[in-house]
Design brief:
Blueprint (H helix, E strand, L loop, with lengths): L1 E3 L4 E3 L11 E8 L6 H5 L12 H13 L3 E10 L5 E10 L3 E10 L3 E13 L12 E10 L2 E10 L8 E11 L8 E15 L5 E16 L7 E6 L5 E6 L5 H4 L3 E15 L10 E11 L9 E13 L6 E13 L42 E16 L3 E15 L10 E12 L2 E12 L9 E6 L6
Parallel strand pairs: 3-5
Antiparallel strand pairs: 1-2, 4-5, 6-7, 7-8, 8-9, 9-10, 10-11, 11-12, 12-15, 13-14, 15-16, 16-17, 17-18, 18-19, 19-20, 20-21, 21-22, 22-23
Length: 466
C-alpha cells in the first residue's frame, strides 16, 4: 500500500510473479454412457495443444450445462508427467432427456385444448433401437380442442454437416376453427418446413432461412353463398329473376377451397435478453422477410416484410420490470396476384390489443362485419409489472398494468392513422405447471365494430412471444 498524499487515499500496488504457461495435453470425458463423445467435444471452447485457459474451461462447462443432457458437469485440470502439460477432465452425470406429457389448457383465443406429446432432447436418428445420444431433438405433439386440432412432428439437428448450423424439419397439420370472428369459415393448413439457423459472428445475432410448402384450405360454413339468382313465379304464370345478395365478403368467398403456398423466407434477430421467462434487461429485435411464389411450385405470388422489437428495463424497485414492444409489417402481391385474407394482418386478442376480440381490428368490406385483414399494420405496447408474491423455484404472482395501441390498413406501405387503443391490468402466475397470464383490457379508442366494454384475455407465458 502506497499513501497518496495529494488525494488523501491509499494506492494499491500488486506485484505479479508469472509462472510458466500450461497447455492442454488431452481432454478426457467420463460418465457419458449414453451421449456420444463428439456431442460433448464439439461444445468445448478449448482444444488439445492450446493454452490451459480456465476462462474457456468455464465457458465449456456452461455450454454443456446448457444442453440439458446432464444433472452435473465438472471440468478440472489433471497433472501429467509432461512438463507444462495438463489434461482436462470433463465429468458428466447424465439425466433422462425423454418425456411423455399429457395435459390440457385454455386460452381466450382457442378455448379448451387437450394435448399429448412425446419428446427426446438427446435424440439420435442413426442409433436404433434407443435413438438416443446424438444431441438431436425430436418431438411428436397432438392437440385436440373445441376450436382446433394440431398434429406436429419436429426434428432438430444443431450441428448440421458437422458445423454449428442448426437444421430444423417440421411436418404439420392444423384445423383452426377460431379464425373467423363471425364463424363464417374454418381454416386448414398441412405442410412441411425446412430451416437453417446459425449465429452470425456473435451468439447475440442469429440468422435463419427457411422454405415451407403447405396446402391451405378455406371451408365456408353452410348457408354462405355468392349472389344467388332465383326464379319467382307471379299469379297468372309470369316469372322474373330475382337476386339473393351475397352474404359473405368477396375476399373470403374467392379463397374458398385449397391453395398451395411455396414460401421462402429469412430472418435476422438480435437478442440480448438476460432471461426468456421474465427478462428485466436487454432486448430482442427481429427482421423477417418472406416471399410466396408460383416460381417455386405454389399457386400464389405475394411477399411479407415485418420488424418487431421488445425492450426490457428494470423498474423503480427490485423485481419491477418495464416491457416495451413495437411491431410493424407490410405485405403485397405481384404478378397480378393479391395477398389472400388468411395471410394478411389483424390485431386484437391476448398477444396484441388486449381490450378487443381476437382479430377484431381489421379492414372490412362495406356492408359486412367480418374482418378481412389488411396489408399494413403497426402496434405498440408498454407494460409495467411488480411482484406480489415471489418465491424462487416454487412460484409467484405478479401484478401488471399495460397500454396497447395499434392500427391495420388495407393498402400496402400506407401507414394507417385510424388507430385503436386500450389500457388494462393483469396477473402473471408462475405456477409449478408453468407460467400463466390473465389480462383485463379496457378500450380507450375503438372503431364502429367494437364496443367500449372491457375484455378478459387468458393464456400461457409471462411475456408475449414473437
Amino acid at each position: 500500500r502506497i499513501p497518496n498524499t495529494e488525494r488523501g487515499t491509499m494506492d494499491l500496488e500488486y506485484a505479479v510473479d508469472e509462472g510458466q504457461k500450461s497447455y492442454v495435453e488431452k481432454i478426457e470425458i467420463r460418465g457419458n454412457t449414453k451421449t456420444k463423445d463428439r456431442v460433448i467435444r464439439r461444445e468445448l471452447a478449448i482444444a488439445p495443444g492450446e493454452t490451459f485457459d480456465m476462462v474457456r474451461v468455464k465457458i465449456s462447462q456452461k455450454r454443456l450445462e446448457g444442453l440439458q443432457f446432464f444433472e452435473k458437469v465438472q471440468a478440472r485440470p489433471d497433472d501429467t508427467d509432461v512438463p507444462n502439460r495438463k489434461n482436462l477432465l470433463i465429468g458428466v452425470e447424465e439425466k433422462n432427456t425423454g418425456n411423455v406429457t399429457i395435459g390440457a389448457g385454455f386460452s381466450s383465443i382457442d378455448s379448451l385444448v387437450g394435448f399429448a406429446e412425446i419428446s427426446q432432447g438427446n435424440f439420435d436418428l442413426m442409433n436404433p433401437p434407443t435413438f438416443t445420444g446424438g444431441g438431436q431433438k425430436a418431438r411428436l405433439r397432438m392437440q385436440l380442442g373445441t376450436q382446433r386440432q394440431d398434429y406436429q412432428l419436429s426434428f432438430v439437428e444443431p450441428w448440421f454437416l458437422d458445423r454449428k448450423l442448426q437444421l430444423g424439419v417440421d411436418l404439420y397439420h392444423r384445423d383452426l376453427n377460431y379464425q373467423s370472428v363471425n364463424n363464417l369459415y374454418d381454416e386448414r393448413r398441412t405442410g412441411a418446413k425446412v430451416s437453417l439457423t446459425r449465429a452470425l459472428g456473435s451468439d447475440f445475432l442469429i440468422g435463419s432461412v427457411y422454405f415451407t410448402y403447405e396446402r391451405v384450405g378455406i371451408d365456408l360454413n353452410p348457408g354462405l353463398h355468392d349472389d344467388l339468382p332465383v326464379t319467382v313465379t307471379l299469379p297468372g304464370g309470369r316469372t322474373y329473376t330475382d337476386i339473393i345478395p351475397r352474404n359473405v365478403p368477396l375476399d373470403i368467398l374467392n379463397e374458398s377451397g385449397d391453395s398451395l403456398l411455396a414460401r421462402l423466407g429469412g430472418s435476422i434477430a438480435y437478442d440480448t435478453r438476460n432471461s426468456t421467462l421474465l427478462p428485466d434487461a436487454g432486448q430482442r429485435t427481429e427482421l423477417n422477410a418472406e416471399v410466396v411464389t408460383s416460381y417455386l411450385g405454389g399457386d400464389r405470388d405475394f411477399y411479407k416484410l415485418e420488424v418487431q422489437s421488445a425492450w426490457y428495463v428494470r423498474g423503480l424497485y427490485k423485481g419491477h420490470v418495464l416491457e416495451l414492444l413495437g411491431r410493424t409489417g407490410a405485405a403485397g402481391g405481384f404478378n397480378g396476384d393479391t395477398v389472400p385474407f388468411y395471410e394478411r394482418y389483424y390485431l386484437g386478442g391476448l398477444y396484441s390489443l388486449r381490450g378487443f376480440h381476437y382479430r377484431a381490428i381489421s379492414p372490412r368490406e362495406p356492408g359486412f362485419t367480418e374482418p378481412i385483414g389488411g396489408n399494413t399494420y403497426w402496434f405498440g405496447s408498454a407494460e409495467y409489472s411488480v411482484p406480489i408474491i415471489q418465491k424462487e423455484k416454487t412460484g409467484g404472482v405478479r401484478l401488471a398494468i399495460f397500454y396497447d395501441i395499434g392500427a391495420v390498413g388495407a393498402d400496402s406501405f400506407s401507414v394507417p392513422t385510424d388507430y385503436s387503443a386500450n389500457w388494462g391490468f393483469g396477473l402473471r402466475l408462475n405456477l409449478p405447471i408453468g407460467p400463466l397470464r390473465l389480462d383485463y383490457g379496457i378500450p380507450l379508442k375503438h372503431d364502429q365494430y367494437s364496443t367500449g366494454s372491457g375484455r378478459f384475455q387468458f393464456g400461457v407465458g409471462y411475456t408475449r412471444g414473437f
